[in-house]
Amino acid sequence: MEIPSVAELNLGVTLPALLLGVWSCVVLIADLFIPKGRKEVTAGLAVLGIVLAFLANLWVFNNPGVAFMGMYVADRFSTFLNMVILLTAFIAVLMSVDYLKRTGMDRGEYYPLLLITSAGMMFMGSANDLTVIFIALELLSIPLYVMAAFRTPDPKSEESGMKYFILGAFSSAFFVFGATLLYGATGSTSLPVIFDSVSRALAGEGSSVLLLLLGAGLTFVGLGFKVAVVPFHMWTPDVYEGAPTPVTAFMSVGAKAGGFAALLRILIVALPTLMFEGQTAATWQTIVWIIAALTLILGNIVAISQTNIKRLLAYSSIAHAGYILMAVAAAGTASVADMATQAALIYLLAYAFTNLGAFAVALAIEKNDGSGTDLDDFRGLAKSRPVLAFAMAVFMLSLTGIPLTAGFIGKWLVFQATLESGLYTLAVIGVLTSVVSAFYYVRVIVNMYLDTDAEGDPAAGATPYVQWAVYIGVAGTILLGILPSLVTNLSDTITLTASFLAR
Asked: Of 207, 257, 375, 411, which is most buried by a Cβ count within 10 Å?
């Protein structure tokens, strides 16, 4: 067995994810010496690790490279995604510090778990091999199973963790089976090698074509669970409602970022030429856009009947997975692949600011026992906490896609890529479902501002840390909506279609 040299490992470009993973172990050991009741020190150490990883990521952004003998790619795609994940982790820590204390869950292992799963998300974005994607998928998932059940002995939280674990294990099995079939068809788990082998497999006779199609389908199923698209969404409402609110907020963005990163890597880097004679787009484009349409329809329609803000945001999360999947479908047209990739990344960034902010406001009015998250609890909030009400209104308008918000920019770019790829039916469905979503988002605003008889919730959970999370969300949502060039200029350099050149 050939032992790789230090140069072949090239650990420098893996520093952001590697540093975060190692730092999680440091935080775990350090927490042993931090007395109970002082766990904000552990939170501070976690923030320090996130900041160090962010600084390392800035260096890698301008110094891309390949590591682990081609199994890891540090490019503009992965480093942009790392920014989204690290931002999500930072805001999640802000939301968690006082929440854990006031709900009696102030246990130090929470923060190492958050750092480990964040490292897993970052590895998924940089994975250039199916084996690395699977390892990263488990690194992402296992800590989240524990975090979802962190509110034990609350039955809802325990149920949340168990459902997530069981269905997550099934999804991982689907992914492994799909990766095995792709290996059988191409003789490799490396995404660039799979790319080189697809044309030969399609030209040859035998079972290679069937293995390719089944392998692509099963890997999509495994990752479809992580990003919560129809019909792999069943776990989302119950897990989101039962998990601690900061965990729900974190997984709603982070797990999506990691899952879509791996999905884009596999479909655009490894399988863009999976098409039969006479086709002008990848074979997988049709099934992806159909699933995107079903996800948009189900997520937005079922959200209308929800009376709990966490379940409403869960179905909203399903719907937004559909919008991002529109960009994935558009990437099936080779000439649009880079535009679609950039649209998906900007949408994820916009969604991070908006959704984390919305969950932070929900956290502010949530009671210590987990109650207080019904839509009725928002009645009169503009009277008792006008700043929080304004912030929630901004977030709801952004999720709807109203101009001058980040959500509008994200949807604009996704629709643009969809139309460029010729998926006009999908674009129409996206527009119509956006109109439907306005009903349940605006209902929250109506409760806050137009119910003048209500006293308004005192929002006892709006501690300084939570308020900072809200302020960051509002600032990002408005700034990205008014000055989108701040991000689009950065994303214009992102490409995945040339990543297969990295060996």
From this structure: 257
